[in-house]
Amino acid sequence: MIRAPTSTGCDGFVPHVGRAVFNTAIHRYVWSSTQRSPKTSHVDTTEVITSDRPTTLAFVRLADGHATHSFYAENSAGRMLAPDDLPEIPDDIFALYFGGISLASDPGGGAYQALLVREGDGSAVMIDPNIRPDFIEDESR
Prior knowledge:
Elements: E1 2-5, E2 11-14, H1 20-26, E3 57-63, E4 66-72, E5 95-99, H2 100-103, H3 108-119, E6 124-128
Parallel strand pairs: 5-6
Antiparallel strand pairs: 1-2, 3-4
């Protein structure tokens, strides 16, 4: 959600899809900053896990070329993912991409770790190290 003026002149928030994992998935098809969806970007979503839980939200404020973020992730779908929720990875999948924020909190972080242990050998593994300090619950882990 990015802050923008509304028709009344007050600021509101406009939803935008994206961030690191999404942008990596569509990179092959999109070479601009245009907002696209996985479907219109030809991204195969066969293995996407669905949930009744809310989606993590990031509210972004842009000022002088810098962004500040407020995240709402407690009990969200990605954060509450468990190892048993993960699908078997098809043989034609050759890369795994993990966002740093998703690795920082359990139980989701443990699920992604289990996926890496199970499927990491023989795969290209990419990790976005952009971990936000507010997400870290157990620094030694």
